[in-house]
Amino acid sequence: MKIGLLVPDSDDPTTFIAADPTQLSTSLSNSWQRQALDLLSRAVSLPSELQELAREFHAPKQPGGSIEHVQGKALIRQRVQHFRDSGMEEALALQPGGPRLPEILSGMIEQDLETLRSGTKMRTIYHASTRYHQPTRDYVATLARAGGQYRTLDEPYTRLLVMDRRVAVIPIVDDMSLAAFIYDPAVIDYLVEEVFERCWSRALEFDGARTVPQQVVSRLRQTIIDQMLEGTNHRVIARRLGISERTLARHIAEMRDDYKVDSLFQLGYVLGRKTQESAD
Q1: In this predicted model, which residue has the larger pLDDT, 36 or 15?
Q2: Following DSSP, what letter does each residue of 17-37 receive, concatenated?
Q3: DSSP E strands, the chain
Q4: What is the fold, at CATH topology level, of the domain defined by 67-205?
Q5: Record's Gene3D superfamilies (predicted)?
Q6: Was domain 214-279 assigned CATH 1.10.10?
């Protein structure tokens, strides 16, 4: 009965009659062949259907966050402002490129003061050339009195902003029209400890005072010397150090007087010999 050799009589359902074995075998054979082909097809396609799931299952677990590219200065500022408005306990910044425009500083000072009053710890590194810029000195002096911490560094470095160690912002292009917002905790920790903190340890305290410490001048000139000996042209040196070409020329002229030479060629020769003697 299970395979259909006996079937109910159409006139009397309580009575069973024998089915034609030939017809039954043909019917069962066709049915079972279709089922077998279906199972075979499913068996063949199963590995490819589960391939993506298998890759995800065997992939190493990655708990880190994402990196988002944001284009356009206005949109970048809006995104940074959003994080500031959400409340911060700590803000770290590397600000290369020399003095900032006075109108930018005046537009920032009230908000930065409010941020400090809310309890946020702010640490910022500027280039040493900002010590010669009165608007920057006034800005730093005001915020330093409110609890902000500032230092200057006389060597080239790249821009970095870290907010609450939850997000780090770095430039993708020099004019900051395209930036990467990094949310991965491991990457952020690396940027803080290996980039910001190392720069902070080498930088010199800056409270906005008008007097430029001799140590700052000496280190700035040493950086100029290193760049000149590498063959870097004056325009690039000035841009890297955040100073004007005119200021760079003044430093070079004073170094010529210090080493009692008349030309830039002679200065380069003397500096090269001095460096070689120090190495020996």
Answers
A1: 36
A2: EE--HHHHHHHHHHHHHHHHH
A3: 6-8, 16-18, 67-71, 90-95, 121-127, 149-153, 160-163, 167-171, 178-182, 204-205
A4: Endonuclease; Chain A (3.30.870)
A5: Winged helix-like DNA-binding domain superfamily/Winged helix DNA-binding domain
A6: yes
Q: What is the pLDDT of residue 5?
A: 53
CA dihedral 145, 147, 149, 150 (to 10 degrees): -30
Which residue do the tokens 């500083």 mark? 105
4-13 CB burial, b ≥16 within 10 A, e <16:
eeeeeeeeee
The token pair that represents 280 in the structure block: 């020996």
Q: What radius of gyration do the chain's Cα atoms show?
A: 37
Contact (Cβ atoms closer than 8 angstroms) between residue 100 and residue 140: no
- Stated as kind and residue range, the H or E segment containing 78 is helix 73-85
C-alpha–C-alpha distance, residues 231 and 237, integer Å: 10
